[in-house]
User: Fold these one by one.
Assistant:
Number 1:
Amino acid sequence: MSAGLLEDFYPAVAIAILMRYIRDPSLYQHHRTVVQAITFIFKSLGSKCIPYLSQVVPAYLHVIRASEPIFREVFSLFLYEA
């Protein structure tokens, strides 16, 4: 595989797996870590993260709405940082 394909492959796979975690309500205790990981990936990708926004933003919003008020601010900050 060429380096360009690998640059796109690994973030795509990581984001897809993290989206599975964030969509699973039984894994709620891991949602903060998932949000941190996605934020880190987005910061690393820079403008290359744009294709993944349609996957991530709805899941982020759902987590923010479903979380306890004390965590809403924390999750909102992660969204703002990305």
Number 2:
Amino acid sequence: MAYACDICSKGKQYGHNVPFSLKKTNKVWKPNLQRQRISIGSNRIQVKICTACIRTLAKYQREAAAKVGAVAEQAEVKAAA
């Protein structure tokens, strides 16, 4: 499946449009894929990821930054004491 997220493998979903007359026509739902460069260690790679995964990665980055900040504050408090 070429049209899929590289992280969560979310891809196309198939179904039918069903109007009042019940004449079914084919329909495809596609995930909102974006090309982004992400860094894994010292390597930067370009991947196709869905917007839900972009939000999740941003959340984990914020949490990691908060943890680093909290550790730095604790070190300052210990050094001052």
